[in-house]
Amino acid sequence: MGSARSLFDKIWDSHDVAMLPDGRHLIHIDRHLVHDLSSPQAFSGLREQGRGLISPHRTVAVADHMVPTLAGRTLACAVPGGAEMIGALEDNAREFGIDHYGMAHDRQGIVHVVAPELGMVVPGMTVVCGDSHTCTLGALGAWAWGIGTSEVEHVLATQTLVMRRPDAARLTLSGVMEPGLSAKDLALYVLREIGVHGKGMGFLELAGELVGGLSMEGRLTLCNLGIEAGARAAVIAPDDVTLEYLAAVRPDLSGSVQAQAAMRGLRSDEGARYEQELALDVALDSPQMTWGINPSQVVGLHEPLPSLETAQEGHMRDRLRAAYRYMGLEPGRPLAGTPVQRVFIGSCTNGRLSDLEDAARLIAGRKVAPSVQALVVPGSKAVKRAAERQGLDKVFRDAGFRWGEPGCSMCVGMNGDYVLPGERSVSTTNRNFEGRQGPGARTHLASPASAAAAAIAGVITDHRELA
Predict the structure, then answer these.
(1) Phi, psi of 269 (to 5 degrees)
(2) d(CA 138, CA 127)
(3) Strand 234-235 to strand 203-207: parallel, antiparallel, or no bridges (unpaired)?
(4) CATH of domain 168-284
(5) Domain-by-domain residue ranges, the chain?
(6) Closest to 98 (Cα-Cα) out of 166, 152, 49
(7) Domain topology for 7-163
(8) Can you give the pTM of this predicted structure?
(9) Fewer C-beta within 10 Å: the chain N or C terminus?
């Protein structure tokens, strides 16, 4: 590699505090995000040891997983145990002196949506949270990844993590994506091509012309699904798109010549190489959607579902059989035309303003099919207010959608929003595992436009046919 350094080299070197005798490293953490689901045990551990936070200003608490989304919500609307967890986060934030974005806060929302829009994350940072989809924030040029409860406690107490230097790789995306398709279609296409274990890396830089052509919100969607490909962190080097986004949320940085130069320097040097270099020539000509029970089981809407013979090994055929059995589908038939009972638009994957705009353009003047129950949940209160200023809430309500309050909602089904057993859901979320949206729920991951089309048609439909 010589003197040429990769993006990962630069971030690692600037945060490597010390090498420990066993070969592990002490890494400084710039930003720590906690939420209602992952943090209670960590705070209890600190309390039992009589310890406080070493850098409370670097930690931010956000209520999102357990919060109800019903209009006029209160803690009384929460599922059993939810009120206690939401209250515990507020109490812990108060006791330990950290900023808290609870249900009543005017900037509350999903942690991975709130953090970028409030400028909590900037290029070159190390960012952790007790949630695997923290990789979303790599779209801003930060090394961001999910951690476990014991690690949450360690960061609270020391503002560091002990870790071995992870493997790092680069995936370059080139090729063609037809008009009308989105970053979600691209992300699903990539998962289809490389699989859920395709890149078991601690750090994956995403590069190439298709990545550079995405908006910041599209990049957040793409990085959000990095964990589904086996990469704990998916990171995009900062460029003009990044700096333009930051100028709106962190104007203090746009006025600093030094900060601008530092952010522009956060990219792999010419000639720098990763341990693994991968390239994917994309030919994306139709909306993509999952058909099975992991995020790599993806097809174009008009393609025949894969036959069992496509699996060369017996255990793979068994997995295909299990997916078909659970999803109630048959090999050889396309997804298009499959009846749908639920549609969900929201989550840290696709709950941003542009996602709601994409769906609303298709929905305007139409009605949700009688057989469908449809829910849209903005990713944050800021997104909700912006959408309401545009009248998007009226578009959704007039069509027959329920317009929810911000939270994780039906992505993980912990707050009372869930899919009934046997029902088929088209969802803009990130995981289609068995039971993810409720026991027996059958989930198809899709873009906001594809979800909107399914809500209107009552069946899985190519949204371009309704445009």
Answers:
(1) -65, 155
(2) 9
(3) parallel
(4) 3.40.1060.10
(5) 7-163, 168-284, 289-465
(6) 152
(7) Aconitase; domain 3 (3.30.499)
(8) 0.97
(9) C
pLDDT in tens, the chain (467 residues): 458 999 999 999 999 999 999 999 999 999 999 999 989 999 999 999 999 999 999 999 999 999 999 999 999 999 999 999 999 999 999 999 999 999 999 999 999 999 999 999 999 999 999 999 999 999 999 999 999 999 999 999 999 999 999 999 999 999 999 999 999 999 999 999 998 766 568 999 999 999 999 999 999 999 999 999 999 999 999 999 999 999 999 999 988 899 999 999 999 999 999 999 999 999 999 999 999 999 999 999 999 999 988 776 777 889 999 999 999 999 999 999 999 999 999 999 999 999 999 999 999 999 999 999 999 999 999 999 999 999 999 999 999 999 999 999 999 999 999 999 999 999 999 999 999 999 999 999 999 999 999 999 999 999 999 97
- 289-465, superfamily in CATH? Aconitase, domain 3 (3.30.499.10)
- Cβ 274 vs Cβ 168: under 8 Å: yes
Two domains, one topology: 7-163 and 289-465? yes
